[in-house]
Amino acid sequence: MNLIIQGLDIHNNDLRNLAKLSSASSIERITGQAFRLVGANQQQDISEYCADAQLDFAFIAQDMPLTYFGLFATDMDSTLLAIESIDEIADMCNVKPQVSEITLSTMKGDIGFAESLTRRTQLLQGLHQDALQRVYDERLQLSPGAEEMLQKLKAAGLKTMVISGGFTFFTDRIKVQLELDYAIANTLEIEDEKLTGKVAGEIIGAQGKAEALKQIRNKLGLKREQVIAVGDGANDLDMLAEAGISIAYHAKPIVQQQATYSINHVGLDGIINLFR
């Protein structure tokens, strides 16, 4: 196996210690924040060492090129984006603390997504639709490394997709801005230029996100093993389960426990460093 080590501040002694713990044959530099330990053996001590040193690690098959995959699917809020868009909308009508509390409970899996989105959207009732554009223009922020990651994914021939329990107002614009191939999300109901406090149509929650991924995967004629999916909250678990490689990005514990790999310290470009 290759042991990929990533971090914002990697010390030479950490690399040497990890190479010794894993019986790696050599150390290769990928970037200034990523190194490949070749011929490594999986050891429980690696996880404990990296947690103490604030490093991300992943054991990857040595013959795993990025070009093997055909589809990359990502959650939007707190994954592709460094914000929770619905929380920022809520800030425009002074209900952000209430909405953020529900958002956090949802991410941890304490309440179901459909109930959560319904309750949060109700709190937005009466807000003028112009507030959505203000959030996009003034507050939208990509997660670190997002653009570099997408550039390299596309260069390797992968299709790219954002699947969100958030709203199409944002995913449609992000799809154009980042030149993504597909975008799936919920639709806010708007009447007389104001939010009604309701979601139009069926709510896309955990199962809906998984179904959306499966639909595009099948459309492209790909196997499950040819899909990489990234998320951070409990409502991403079903979607992640439909991918051959699932990545928990700065995620809640419940997601890290079930994902193939976790990235907690570096940006989204760290995903590219996992593969040849």
TrEMBL record:
Cellular component, GO, one term: cytoplasm
GO annotation terms (biological process): L-serine biosynthetic process
Record-annotated DUF4072 domain positions: 3-43
Catalytic center residues: D75 (nucleophile), D77 (proton donor)
Pfam families: DUF4072 (PF13284), Hydrolase (PF00702)
Keyword Hydrolase: yes
Biological or metabolic pathway of the protein: Amino-acid biosynthesis; L-serine biosynthesis; L-serine from 3-phospho-D-glycerate: step 3/3
Keywords, sorted A to Z: Amino-acid biosynthesis, Hydrolase, Magnesium, Metal-binding, Serine biosynthesis
Cofactor(s), by name: Mg(2+)
Key word Phosphoprotein present: no
Record-listed E.C. numbers: 3.1.3.3
Catalytic activities: O-phospho-L-serine + H2O = L-serine + phosphate; O-phospho-D-serine + H2O = D-serine + phosphate
GO molecular function term, any single one: magnesium ion binding
Family that this chain belongs to: Belongs to the HAD-like hydrolase superfamily. SerB family.
The protein's name in its UniProt record: Phosphoserine phosphatase
Organism annotation: Nitrosomonas cryotolerans ATCC 49181
